[in-house]
From TrEMBL:
Listed name of the protein: Murein peptide carboxypeptidase
Highest taxon of source: Bacteria
Keyword Hydrolase: yes
Keywords, comma-separated and alphabetical: Carboxypeptidase, Hydrolase, Protease, Serine protease
The species this protein was found in: Paenibacillus konkukensis
Top enzyme category: hydrolase
């Protein structure tokens, strides 16, 4: 069973880091202002505002910021400013044993996917494919906050990964399976193949989503995962949105799911609103889940606490 980080409560401290690409200072400051208005304390890493081209500082600098947050006993949530590119560059410089001994909530998506899954695989830490600092804005849908805080501020079980009202989850291949949830952004997961941080899908439920890629390239990455054995290894598949993914050669994202994913024969849930879309479901990476695509109301249920409650006085 994964290590459950302590839950987030009003007044807790949130540590902001930039593990990948830089985020403009005005957007960082806006997110911090909104977090403070919600009643949280906020601290920033030394390189949060750094910019080195498409990276926010060197790999070692960005890794040092992440480790400083794990080392700070006051910090309960480590919140990346954004993803972008470059998160994989910090992985060799993290102390995974120390992280296991000092668990924190870590949330994000996009290129942060590699950090989330590596922390689970190397430190046994349950993480969250959910909000980043750039998502704390005045126009953020209430659904996004409800999903995020529902996962990180309550130890109740079961929890359900739900879409907003009016956007149905779709069961494409019927079945009922249980397994640990892993995954996230398709590009980021494909980039782990052949590295020490390669995604391990054995007996797990694999969640995938993508953004701003033509469908022929999405096919190429899915086929890469297939050739690497990841679809053989997993017990079930959850497909999120492919936001702003254009039709290629007359094929849409739905066509690709029907032509490529459905024939794999694994229980398949589609149309999950998550990550790059307007609506962002919170998906706990490393949590035991039950996938039901057989009933009339398909569901993804989280069967273990995603955070730990404070000890009773």
């Amino acid at each position: 069973m994964a290590i459950h980080p302590p839950l987030l409560q009003p007044g807790d401290t949130i540590g902001i880091v930039s593990p990948g690409s830089p985020l403009p200072a005005d957007q960082i400051n806006l997110g911090i202002t909104i977090l403070k208005s919600m009643g949280f304390q906020v601290i920033t890493g030394n390189y949060v505002y750094a910019s080195n081209g498409f990276l926010a500082g060197t790999d070692r600098q960005r890794a040092a910021d992440v480790m400083s947050m794990f080392a700070n006993p006051a910090v309960k949530l480590i919140l990346p400013a954004r993803g972008g590119v470059g998160v994989a560059g910090i992985l060799p410089y993290l102390d995974y044993r120390f992280i296991s001994a000092n668990p924190k909530i870590v949330s994000g998506y996009s290129d942060v996917t590699v950090l989330l899954n590596t922390l689970y695989q190397n430190s046994d830490l349950l993480t969250f494919s959910s909000l980043m600092l750039l998502n704390f804005r005045m126009d953020t849908p209430a659904y996004n906050y409800d999903q995020f805080f529902g996962m990180v501020s309550s130890a109740s079980v079961p929890k359900f990964v739900l879409n907003p009202p009016g956007i149905p989850l779709v069961g494409k291949v019927p079945g009922r399976v249980s397994g640990t949830l892993i995954g996230g952004n398709l590009t980021s997961l494909t980039d782990t193949l052949g590295t020490p941080y390669e995604i391990d899908a054995r007996s797990r439920i694999l969640f995938l989503e993508e953004t701003h890629e033509p469908i022929n390239k999405v096919y190429r990455m899915l086929n890469h995962l297939k050739l690497a054995g990841k679809f053989n290894d997993c017990v079930g598949i959850v497909m999120g949105e492919c936001t702003e993914c254009g039709v290629s050669y007359g094929k849409s994202y739905d066509d690709l799911i029907n032509d490529f994913i459905v024939p794999l024969g694994k229980p398949l849930l589609t149309n999950l609103s998550a990550a790059h879309g307007t609506y962002k479901a919170a998906v706990p990476i490393g949590a035991l889940a039950h996938l039901d695509t057989q009933s009339s109301n398909p569901s993804l249920a989280i069967m273990e606490p995603t955070v730990s409650a404070p000890a009773s006085a």
